Amino acid sequence: MKVLVTGGTGFVGGHLIRELRRNGHTVVVLSHHRARGPEQGITIVRGDVTDPVSVGAAAWGCDAAINLVGIIREIPSKEITFDRLHTLATRNVVDGAREAGIRRYLQMSALGTRKDAVSNYHRTKYAAEEYVRASGLDWTIFRPSLIFGPRDAFVNMLADQVRKFPIVPVIGDGSYRMQPIHADDVARCFVQSLGMPETVGQTYDLCGPDRLTFLQMLTVVGRVLGKSSVTTVKSPLGLIKSVVPFLQKIPAFPLTADQLQMLIEESICDGAWRKTFTFEPIRFEAGIREYLKNQ
User: Fold this and answer.
1) 123-126 long-range CB contacts below 8 Å, 24 or more apart?
2) Pairing mode of beta strands 212-213, 177-178
3) What is the average pLDDT across 172-184?
């Protein structure tokens, strides 16, 4: 199968492309830049997901389309916004697929996406999902929890803090929970779904086997880095909520109001996806040990 991948040069994209190639698929990657050298079975097409013409050109001759495009932080001055890169981009990929005669379509969304979400991140993800559902294509939507792997942002940030600082700051009481899922497992779900007609018209919440509080995640990261314990200092949630809307305007500040909202909402699921995709997912500690121990 020849598969168009948008967002293929990102963190999850690398895992997905490897899994596609491992299963014998050829890949067309729509990219701003020629980020990877020539590789057998992979074609890089220069273009922009917000430009319907370039999306349509990349889609011709493909049998399926996978849209991974997403951002976690807006930079309006550079036209990097949730509306453009979640909603508009999805419309362009869906429309490009239809015009190219593609029937099979897979969409990356996010756990917690819903119509009445507080965060604009989740609201724009939901608007994108609704466009996919109304497309008439043979669609499948995946909503992963926090994704971890060698190039992830979140776990590597925690590890960096544990290494450098004697005391690690914690927002609130640190009891909010996550079920991190490995990028390889997300990729396996996408690729397996291509050949599973029963997944058409379905939305899957993806989460890992370990449900951990933020404090427990810090403990695991510390253990992998050889620390017997991680000393933390807790910041009052009310104070953080009051200052983040102002500090998020500073590009170097590591947190936005949307990210804070999603953190305290938690990111957990019931694991029902494993009834359809029956492989054994990677455990959190084993997964991060593979890459943090070599840093």
Assistant:
1) 123/82, 124/82, 124/83, 124/86, 124/87, 125/70, 125/82, 125/86
2) antiparallel
3) 97
CA angle 205, 208, 214 (to 5 degrees): 105
Q: What percent of the chain has pLDDT over 70?
A: 98
pTM exceeds cut of 0.85 = yes
In sequence order, the 6+-apart residues with CB closer than 8 A to the CB of 142 are 106, 107, 108, 109, 186, 189, 190, 193, 203, 204, 206
Decide: 144 and 110 in contact? Cβ < 8 Å. yes
Residues 6+ apart with CB under 8 A from 242: none
pLDDT in tens, 95-120: 999 999 999 999 999 999 999 999 99
Terminal Cα-to-Cα distance of the chain (whole angstroms): 37
Residue 293 pLDDT: 77
Residues in a beta bridge with 107: 67, 141
Strand blocks (E) in 165-279: 168-171, 177-178, 181-182, 202-206, 212-213, 232-235
Residue range 2-9: average pLDDT?
Answer: 96
pLDDT in tens, 16-46: 999 999 999 999 999 987 555 557 889 999 9
The closest of 36, 30, 198, 22 to 100, measured between CA atoms, is: 30
Q: What angle do CA 237, 238, 243 make, to 5 degrees?
A: 100
User: Is the Cβ–Cβ distance between 252 and 235 less than 8 Å?
Assistant: no
Q: Provide the pairing of β-strand 177-178 with 168-171.
A: unpaired
